[in-house]
Design brief:
The protein has 151 residues and is an alpha+beta fold. It contains four helices and five strands, in the order αβαββαβαβ.
Length: 151
């Protein structure tokens, strides 16, 4: 199903919090390479610094990214497009390759409560632990959260 069909019926509200998940084509683990992961992390910071979003938490897993943010002045689809386009171009340039870097589309979820916010932050930060990449929260170098961890 095309990305535009998946977006049908969805709304994007400035000031609301979303979790966006996007996956590398073929689930290739590009972000096992710290330099590749740094490109993604820099893009996440840049989108926040430019005022498109206010990032709350993220994790760059070997083959996908989970990112929680509050929309500031752009619709969700524009933020996702900016992120995927800028990182895809930079990563393809770095790896001297062409073609799609990310799978088409993305998964998004609008958060509706403070409890949901905390649960999603813990889910995002717990990804490396559940994947067996690290032993505990806070050890994974490619994760970030606005708030201190209270593990």
């Amino acid at each position: 199903m095309s990305s535009s069909k998946l977006r049908r019926g969805r709304i994007s509200l400035i000031g609301h919090t979303y979790v966006l998940t996007t996956v590398c084509c073929g689930r290739r683990p590009w972000f096992d390479d710290p330099a590749s992961a740094a490109i993604v992390m820099n893009a996440l910071h840049d989108l926040s610094d430019r005022g498109y979003v206010s990032s709350l938490a993220w994790v760059v897993m070997p083959d996908h990214v989970h990112w929680m943010f509050e929309l500031c002045n752009e619709p969700l689809c524009n933020v996702a497009r900016r992120f995927k386009s800028s990182t895809g171009l930079a990563l393809n340039r770095m790896h001297r390759r062409g073609g799609a870097f990310w799978q088409s589309g993305y998964h998004d979820h609008a958060l509706r409560s403070d409890r949901s916010l905390r649960d999603h932050v813990m889910y995002i930060l717990g990804n490396p632990v559940r994947a067996g990449i690290t032993g505990k929260l806070g050890e994974y170098p490619h994760a970030w959260c606005k708030w201190p961890l209270d593990t």
